[in-house]
Amino acid sequence: MTLGMIILGRQGSGKGTQAVRIAERFGIIHISTGDMLRAAVEEGTELGLKAKSIMDAGELVTDDVINGIVEERLKKEDVLHSGFLLDGYPRTVGQATELKKLAAENLKLAINLEVSIEEVTQRMLSRGRQDDTPEAIARRLELYEAETSPLIEWFDKENILCVINGSGTENEVYERVISEIEKSI
Ligand code: AP5
Q1: N or C end of the chain: smaller count of CB under 10 Å?
Q2: Where are the domains of the chain?
Q3: Which tens digit of pLDDT belongs to each residue from 35-58?
């Protein structure tokens, strides 16, 4: 059995930043749905064409589409062999339910990075990605509260939730995360 983890948290809480380092440390595959969608936009695929306006507006791509992309990725040889760290997925109860069907036996930990709305907003405004406009940030954070924050309780009930303070320097957060993962796996 391989190691499977997910990383949750508000937009801008540092999921992507930490996920790259955690995946390297544990030799597992980092799967970011946001990166996959941005690559599709860049390549101009059918998915990319559909996803671009949704992402720019800060809306969520539909569960069906995202579940299909993740299911395909989880079946690839590298993931089957090394395990995975999902970043940006799941972010609705529908996606979490699907993930449970796809990978329940490998899913060991759901890390939730806690950072305030004020701090994540500041981080995203200083980054300036295409979807980091004040309007899209506000919409993404609104959707996080409505659609994604219920997953904290959802994973708590699954007994795999681990809450980490995501404020402080990247290294401080990384040390906190690693120490919690090592206690839990
Ligand atoms: P996605 O790419 O996942 O974007 P997001 O959810 O908005 O998350 P971010 O990438 O902004 O935040 P992050 O937590 O990864 O933080 P990061 O490490 O980058 O998704 C984009 C879009 O794709 C969505 O809006 C949606 O449309 C669609 N999508 C994706 N997945 C989907 C799904 N499952 N279902 C439906 N739609 C989906 O850090 C942010 C900034 O802060 C960086 O500049 C970083 O350098 C900085 N930083 C990080 N850590 C620290 C620190 N400790 N101190 C100071 N600065 C820090």
Answers
A1: N
A2: 4-184
A3: 999 999 999 999 999 999 999 999
| Cα-based angle 148, 39, 168 (whole degrees, multiple of 5) | 50
The β-bridge partners of 6 are: 86, 110
Q: Which atom of ligand 1 is nearest to the CA of 34?
A: 2
3-state class of 85 per DSSP? strand
Distance, CA of 146 to CA of 184 (rounded, Å): 29
Number of helices and strands in the chain (H, E): 10, 5
CA dihedral 166, 159, 61, 80 (to 10 degrees): 100
66 token code pair:
């995202």
Question: Is ligand 1 within 6 A of the CB of residue 36?
Answer: no
Contact (Cβ atoms closer than 8 angstroms) between residue 67 and residue 95: yes
The model's pTM: 0.98
